[in-house]
Amino acid sequence: MILSHLRYAVRLLRLQPGSSAAIVITLALAIGANATLFTLINAALLAPLPVSEPDRLVNVYSSRPDGTGFGGLSYPDYRDLRDGTQAFEDVLGYSGLMATITDADRSEVIFGEIVTANYFSLLGVVPLLGRGFNPAEGGTPDAHPVAVISHRMWTRRFNADRSVIGRALPLNGRVFTVIGVAPERFAGLLFRGISADAWVPTAMMGAVRTDQLTNRDERWMFVKGRLTRDASVDQAAAEAQVIAARLQTQYPSTNQGRTLRVLPTSSVLVNPEGDRAVLAATAAVMGAAGLVLVVACANLAGVMLARGLARKREISIRLAIGARRRDVIVQWLAESAILAGLGGAGGLAAGRLMAAALASWRPDLPVPVSLNTSADSRVTLFTFGVTVTALLLFSFVPALRASRLPAAGSMTVAATRHRRRFFGLRDGVLVPQLAIAVMLVGAAGLLVRSLARADRLPPGFDLDNTAFVALNLSMNGYDAERSRRFYDELARQLKDGGIATAAAVTSRLPLDLYGNQSMTVSVEGGRTPVQAARVGHEYFDALGIPLVRGRAFTREDERSGADPVVIVSAAAARRFWPDAEAIGRTIQIATDEASDRQLPARVVGVAADVKVQSLAEAPQSFIYQPLASGHQSLLRMVVRTPGSPQRAVAALRDTVRAMDPAVGVFEARTMSENFGVMIYPYRLAAGLGGAFGVLALLLAAVGLYGVLGCGVNERLRELAIRLALGAPPRAIVRAAGAETGRAVAAGLLLGMAMALVTGSLMADVLFGISPFDAVAMFGTAAVLPAVIAGASAAPIRRALRAQPAELFRQ
């Protein structure tokens, strides 16, 4: 029975190839937009780790001293957990690693992981070549310089040479021996989408970064455990709490108040504290794509209603000769299912191509970004679900409507009269199409306007004449004094060469993706967290940040043993001393999060406010401290240049390479380029919003064209007679489009209301404009009449050119 319905449906669709192709293309576009985004989200957040039995893996976190938060563990705490629990088969630790590979004439910065020796064995990851680490290589410090490299590094650096095992890999000036090559799909554990190039054992930590294996207060390690087959997450959590309580008693100075938390790895996207924001952003993006699907389905519902009216004679005859309503509905759904299936297949293919194209983009970041966009079962099932949803949305109501047509003989089918009504179902489907399209266009307009204002909003520092380079000299064995000499010499050469008029080293830059340093200060007895940075004495000159009062730092302030001094932002001065002078005041700086130790520092200057983390933020309280040495893990030298900032970037790279070819450059770009990287997520959001808005608007325009055209065709003889009897064109237009016009007006009004509500929800991601920005809203309102006029032109022109004599001869 079903097969006969499908065969008949195929014959009918072949008789209407043009309209059938239009339906399939519309579905493919809407489903493809959803499949593209879900493919990227699946690759970045949802796909299970390519490890053995991932459902038995759990994450272990250490809390803050107040019992909140989800942070890493220190290495001593990790060992106590590993040795004290029965619920885990084993426990591994890992952390990020930035290292330089130095050849004779160049150096390259790579991203990797420093891991415990049981890393590969616990995960069940079998190297493609060679082996993982053995217990001895994770034991004695600095005794086994071995490394496992990624498949990507193996193909890129070693030309996929299968004899790579035993080859040398120079990391941070130390020669490591390659003992294995990871499988192609395995990219590490740190963050999905970020690929590790090499893994080294924790015992070699001192050779690649600052040795933190004995410091219980340095919580640098992420921890995963594999549950025994008869253990539960609750059991593991209870054991971890017992261990945490014991550590609090044994080591109160470092562990007081800290607990251990255990969560299934599958339940965590990025970090439990940030997952809510990640889910909100994901839901917003998928919601916009879902709205495009709704617009497409409303569009197609109108087309299917029109098809039903065009086939009313056929359906009425079938009912008259004994067909049941159920048979009509099944036949209609069979036709729709074929169209939906073709559209879903096209959407899946388009989604894969678009996702692969988007994933191939390589942002200018110091870590390799890679997403596996191959369609797995999740993507396939999601696309199938979207296809079925679309099928029900665009076909079910038209199928019911078609089955309710009267049988031939019960009335004259061709003589059905046009009934006056506000607007019917066919016109009513325009309302959600236009409303959603207007809302998406309005949201995109706000984002575009916000980005346009970004270039004109003052960030508080000079973007046009500045550049920077990011280095980590400690990776190359530089101590504090040698680091200071290196940066001093780098600044001298840049100034002597006319590249820089001011140069300073800093621990962070404003509006930088990687800057998130804070400290706790006490002022007038109250403790509060503030944003902070350590900067060189020419920092304010280099970035063009004016000093409101007081003085800048001097070389004397940077000297070891000098009296502690700070410079505060104008916002901090207003916050802490609203009615008094800040210069000369003393603040207490917390030196240790886990204790009450504080260091008094005198305020010597007040700097103008700068945008720290976002252009949309209010002025933030900020504390600047002198950079006492150049021995922090990652520092940036920022320069002010009288010439081209791009030339300064090239000079920074070349000068560093000339001074020490082994020093790897993590980043080197102009501050303007760095600003572009910071606002890239906003540009991406505006681009996606604009694409969704335009697609929804086009689909709505096509829907309007179809509905109005169908209505004109139904009443063409009536309209032609009116025209022949002397009705003015204005009356013909009004008669042809009255119901559709009311539906359009309702859709536009509803859409503008939805756009205003959406704007209020977007307030936190807009900078420089109101959520109810008049330009964006008027711009949205202005583009709609043109779209509506374009979609309505052909049907109205057909009504005005109707000739009664020709129509009655048909």
Could you name the key traits of this structure?
alpha+beta, 25 helices, 6-stranded mixed beta barrel, 810 residues
Describe the structure.
By secondary structure, the protein is α+β, with helices and mostly antiparallel strands. 49% of the residues lie in helices and 16% in strands. The protein has 25 helices and 21 strands. The strands form 3 sheets. Strands 1, 2, 3, 4, 5, 6, 7, 8, 9 and 10 form a 10-stranded mixed sheet that branches. Strand 17 and strand 18 form a beta hairpin. The protein is globular, with a radius of gyration of 33 Å. The two termini are 37 Å apart. The relative contact order is 0.11. About 2% of the residues have low confidence.
In short:
With 810 residues, the protein is of the alpha+beta class. The protein is built from 25 helices and 21 strands.
